[in-house]
Structure formats: structure tokens, C-alpha cells
Design brief:
Helix content: 55-70%
Number of helices: 5
Strand content: under 5%
Structural class: mainly alpha
Largest sheet: none
Length: about 160
């Protein structure tokens, strides 16, 4: 005797484009890094490379490389979030990018990074928490660029594809 059961499977489809997330993250990291160089070079030359024992001495190219890599990884995470949330317009994806940048500023730059820099003995250790206004600007710009590039390169209904 065979028993057959009917089974309903609910499929949830979330669209995200990991390549657009990485591309947006790289673009945002480059623009943010350029702002950091103009406004406070020591952050990119000493603090960022110090996270991985790569400074001192100060080294802008290494700091930029590490920073852009961080931007790419965070852009990939953003792509996943945008897909899960089902962001459906260019305005919403750019707005989500801005929120993402501010969240990164609070959690990573404001709380985690100062603790990490202190733990590795960096000469660029800021106080905990480190909610510096210029850093908020840099992270907001990162998020806006990330969201804009993701919106243009992505495959959502809001993209140019």
C-alpha cells in the first residue's frame, strides 16, 4: 500500500545582485577613502592599516586597499539585505544605502573599530565610543554611493537593465 501525501512548499524569492553589491561597495569605498584623505589622512594612512598590524609606518596605499576591501565586503552584505527587504525603487535602494552607511558608522566605526584599534595597540586608537561627525559624513557618502551604484547595476525593477 502506497501512501501519498500532498505537501505545499512556500517559496520566497528575494532578488539581489551580489556583483552590484560588490561594485557599489568598491565605488563607495573609493569615494569615502578620497574624502578621508582630504579631511583626515591619518585615518586612512594609520588607523585603517593598524587594524591588521600593517601600520605604523603610515601607508596610504595599504590603507586604501584595506578600506576598499571592507567596502566590497559590506557592499556584498548590503546586496543581501536589499534582496531580503525586496527594495523596489531606486529611491528606496539609495535610502537604504544611506541607512546602511549610518548603521556601519555607529556599529563598526563608532563602537567596534575603537575597541579593535586599542586591542592591537594602534597609535591611532580613538576613544570608545567614537562618534566623530566627519566619520558620519564619510559613512553616509559611502552608503549613498553604494545604494546609487547598486541601483544602476542591480537587476531589480529599479535598475537600468
Amino acid at each position: 500500500m502506497a501512501i501519498e501525501t500532498g505537501r505545499r512548499v512556500r517559496t520566497i524569492s528575494h532578488r539581489s545582485n551580489w556583483k552590484a553589491g560588490i561594485g557599489g561597495g568598491v565605488a563607495g569605498g573609493i569615494v569615502m577613502g578620497a574624502l578621508m584623505l582630504v579631511m583626515n589622512e591619518a585615518v586612512i594612512a594609520v588607523a585603517i592599516p593598524s587594524l591588521y598590524f600593517l601600520a605604523p609606518p603610515a601607508t596610504v596605499p595599504v590603507g586604501m586597499a584595506v578600506h576598499v576591501f571592507h567596502g566590497a565586503v559590506l557592499g556584498l552584505a548590503f546586496a543581501g539585505l536589499a534582496g531580503v527587504l525586496g527594495v523596489d525603487s531606486i529611491g528606496n535602494v539609495v535610502g537604504l544605502g544611506l541607512v546602511w552607511g549610518v548603521v556601519i558608522w555607529v556599529v563598526l566605526a563608532g563602537l567596534l573599530m575603537p575597541v579593535w584599534l586599542s586591542a592591537v595597540g594602534s597609535p591611532a586608537s580613538p576613544p570608545v565610543p567614537n562618534f566623530a561627525p566627519p566619520s558620519l559624513l564619510w559613512h553616509a557618502v559611502y552608503g549613498l554611493v553604494l545604494g546609487g551604484v547598486y541601483g544602476v547595476l542591480g537587476d531589480g525593477p529599479y535598475s537600468s537593465h
